[in-house]
């Protein structure tokens, strides 16, 4: 399987923060959820991928090409959605079409118009008069209308109501009907990723904690609950992170290393993130 994105030992430093040897791969034809708390490095990583920030060290390849050396070619095949629509708010959807058809060789005016109609986005209404949900739908329509092979999404469903979010997720799944298409989906809304992601990459304090197949991730971990005394019966090598709660403790464990006689709860992505961020080593 080829990779849509390959990041190897990426480093980028700021006075108060740094990306530390960030490495992950997004296989072509799959969706990767990119998760982490605010300030963990998700947007910084994405901006490095897009060459909006210059990396200090490491290698970034998109479609097997160096992201900087082949930037123009690569960006013809990428659609990007940020958490805001960074277009002058006096413009309307028709203005945007007239501008972007001159920028993208593959711009599809008919498809763009179809998406506007589907999303009920007015053709002539200035962006500043659109709701947040409408602005995000417009941003996604723009990203899709030059038929990209890769979508890079930075919090595209943040602040949207569940109905609008569901519409947008459906559109992403339609995009994935082409088996060559791929999505890197950075979000805080982990329930969205549980619906559509194939892989989860978790970044914390500028470092990748894990990058795994989602189903394997959710199956490999379990949550044990009890008292500190009871926890002594668990194999030490199976314990990954521990948290205190009102009734005792919770321990994230490697399910395969724990006897089936123990009762384990199935974690979700958010549970696993919280254990790694707020839990301690047992």
From TrEMBL:
In its keyword annotation, does this UniProt entry include Nucleotide-binding? yes
Looking up CDD domains in the UniProt record yields: ABC_DR_subfamily_A
Q: Which UniProt keywords apply?
A: ATP-binding, Nucleotide-binding, Transport
Q: Where is the ABC transporter domain?
A: 5-230
- Pfam families according to UniProt: ABC_tran
Lineage, top-rank taxon, reads Bacteria
Query: Per its record, what are the GO molecular function terms?
Result: ATP binding; ATP hydrolysis activity
Concerning SUPFAM superfamilies, the annotation shows: P-loop containing nucleoside triphosphate hydrolases (SSF52540)
Q: InterPro entries given for it?
A: AAA+_ATPase, ABC_transporter-like_ATP-bd, ABC_Transporter_VariousFunc, P-loop_NTPase
Stated name of the protein: ABC transporter ATP-binding protein
């Amino acid at each position: 399987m080829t990779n849509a994105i390959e990041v190897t030992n990426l480093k980028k430093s700021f006075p108060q923060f740094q990306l530390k040897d960030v490495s992950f791969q997004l296989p072509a034809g799959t969706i990767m959820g990119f998760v982490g708390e605010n300030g963990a490095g998700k947007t910084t990583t994405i901006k490095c991928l897009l060459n909006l920030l210059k990396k200090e060290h490491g290698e970034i390849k998109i479609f097997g090409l160096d992201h900087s050396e082949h930037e123009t070619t690569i960006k013809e095949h990428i659609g990007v959605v940020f958490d805001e629509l960074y277009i002058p708010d006096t413009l309307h959807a028709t203005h945007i079409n007239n501008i972007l058809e001159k920028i993208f060789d593959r711009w599809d005016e008919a498809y763009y118009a179809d998406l506007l109609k589907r999303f009920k986005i007015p053709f002539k209404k200035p962006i500043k008069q659109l709701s947040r949900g409408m602005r995000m739908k417009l941003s996604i329509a723009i990203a899709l209308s030059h038929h990209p092979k890769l979508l890079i999404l930075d919090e595209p469903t943040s602040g949207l109501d569940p109905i609008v979010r569901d519409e947008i997720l459906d559109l992403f799944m339609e995009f994935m009907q082409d088996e060559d298409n791929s999505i890197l989906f950075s979000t805080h809304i982990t329930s969205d990723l549980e619906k559509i992601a194939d892989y989860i990459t978790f970044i914390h304090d500028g470092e990748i904690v894990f990058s795994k197949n989602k189903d394997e991730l959710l199956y490999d971990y379990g949550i044990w609950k009890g008292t500190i005394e009871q926890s002594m019966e668990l194999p030490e090598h199976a314990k990954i992170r521990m948290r205190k709660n009102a009734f005792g403790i919770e321990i994230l464990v490697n399910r395969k290393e724990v006897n089936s006689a123990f009762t384990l709860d199935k974690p979700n992505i958010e549970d696993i993130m919280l254990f790694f961020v707020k839990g301690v080593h047992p």
